[in-house]
């Protein structure tokens, strides 16, 4: 019993206690889970049923996710360069190795990391740096919608503020739309335009922040 619209260019906060269905909602929208009922409409297309090849390609590019635990969502055997460039490789977005490298370097700078980080492995980075790599991996695909699933809850308080400010700056620069899932109300209030409250799998409240 969850229904809401996310307007282009806004940050929609989704809050609720653990187990209320926040992450399930986010993962169903991006189709990591197949919805068992209801519809998900993205850019005028129903993406809740069986997807065509074209729809899958469009979704993988136009919708990206930032996960809660960067250590669990980054491949420990790959260097940062290859982690960020994975989507670029799959969708053939770079014409040459040099262009691929340039895209990754530009994205690293954008998220506040240096080009030296490109040759490191995830375990050689701090929690905040790993989360910035996760953000860079999502952004390099030039998405329209980013689903941030508890993207800052695993970070120290001082790092949280940096990541929130970074997400805000990137939103303005790239005209991004966010679904921001969290349980920290002060953070959601600060970053969101509107907030939906989910309780036991139902949306019980929706209002401007």
Notes on the structure:
The chain is of the alpha/beta class and 209 residues long. Helix content is 41%, strand content 18%. The chain contains 8 helices and 8 strands, in the order βαββαβααααβαβαββ. It has helices at residues 22-29, 53-62, 70-73, 80-90, 97-110, 127-139, 157-174, 185-191; strands at 11-15, 41-42, 45-46, 63-66, 145-149, 177-182, 194-199, 202-208. The strands form 2 sheets. It has a 6-stranded mixed β-sheet with strand order 4-5-6-1-7-8, sandwiched between helices. A two-stranded antiparallel sheet has the order 2-3. α4 (80-90) packs across α5, α4 packs parallel to α6 (127-139) and α6 runs parallel beside α7. The longest helix has 18 residues, at 157-174. It is globular, with a radius of gyration of 17 Å. It starts with 10 loop residues before the first strand and ends with a strand. The mean pLDDT is 90.
From the alpha carbons, calculate the radius of gyration and give it in angstroms. Answer: 17 Å
Strand content: 15-25%
Average pLDDT taken over every residue: 90
User: Can you tell me the residue ranges where pLDDT is under 50 for at least 5 consecutive residues?
Assistant: none
Q: Element order, helices and strands? A: EHEEHEHHHHEHEHEE
Count of extended strands: 8
- Fraction in helix: 40-55%
Tell me, briefly, the overall form: globular
What is the strand arrangement across the widest sheet?
Answer: 4-5-6-1-7-8
- Please give the alpha-carbon distance between the first and last residues: 22 Å
Which structural category fits the helices and strands? alpha/beta
Total helix count?
8
What profile does the largest beta sheet have?
6 strands, mixed
